[in-house]
Amino acid sequence: MKIACSILSIVEGNIENKKEKVDAFNLTDCDYLHLDIMDGKFVETKTLPDLEMLDLVKGIEKPFDIHIMVEDIGRYIEIYQTLHPQYLTFHWEATDHPVLWIQALKKAKIGVGISIKPETPVSVLLPYLEELDLVLVMSVEPGKGGQSFLESSISKIEELKELRDQNGYHYQIEVDGGINADTIHQVRGADIVVSGSFVTNRENYQTQIDLLRK
Questions:
Q1: Strands of 70-139, DSSP E
Q2: ∠175-181-187 over CA atoms, to 5°?
Q3: Which residue among 31, 36, 39, 133 is the active-site one?
Q4: Which stretch of DSSP H or E encloses residue 67?
Q5: Neighbour tally for 40: CB within 10 Å
Q6: Is 169 helix (H, G, I), strand (E, B) or coil?
């Protein structure tokens, strides 16, 4: 299982040394730096202006795993493809034309991810699974860090594993929301877990990451 560390709680806070806190991930063994990008429309929260976000992560040596919670998917693909992310994930609920964005990401040579909210069933993704590199299961409502883990996500992970095994699909299964040392054992079927405030609310990130890896 791989660990993607979210910087959402750093981005949301009024912290003067945000850049220093983000750069500290270069000193850890986390597998990805997870960026949550929100436009204040698809979800109520709005993250930093894009140029400020790009400056904040400049010099990061970890692969980027970017989750866009936005309405204007094309605009944000254009902006964040400059980071050459390993994965860029958009929401199924944010578009009537998922194939358009799947093709755009493939053309940009970026790993294609689709995310679904807690109330959205896995079945909506059936037409697209063959083309995906990642499926992101939200185990909280998107748009705000620090929420409690929703156990309904467990069955979705198992369903996605079964579909992958039965059909020979290649997507990674990622889960995001409420992941800490107490809940991670419930999502051992996932390939990637996203953890945010559990890691960043402590001074020593690596100690927290070690707890997740146990």
A1: 87-91, 111-116, 134-138
A2: 30
A3: 36
A4: strand 64-69
A5: 13
A6: coil
Q: State the Cα–Cα distance between residues 102 and 16, nearest whole angstrom.
A: 37
Nearest Cα residue to 175 out of 146, 212, 211, 134: 134
CA-based torsion, 67, 33, 54, 196: positive or negative: positive
pTM listed for this prediction: 0.94
Query: Which phi and psi angles does 64 have, rounded to 5°?
Result: -90, 140
Q: How many C-beta atoms lie closer than 10 Å to residue 123's C-beta?
A: 10
Active site residue 36: yes
Give 25-64 pLDDT, tens digit per residue: 999 999 999 999 999 999 998 999 999 999 999 999 999 9
Q: What is the DSSP letter of 17?
A: T
* Candidates 39, 65, 133, 176; catalytic one: 176
Largest CA distance in the chain: 50
C-alpha to C-alpha distance for 106 and 59, rounded to whole angstroms? 25
Instruction: Give yes or no: 39 in active site.
Output: no
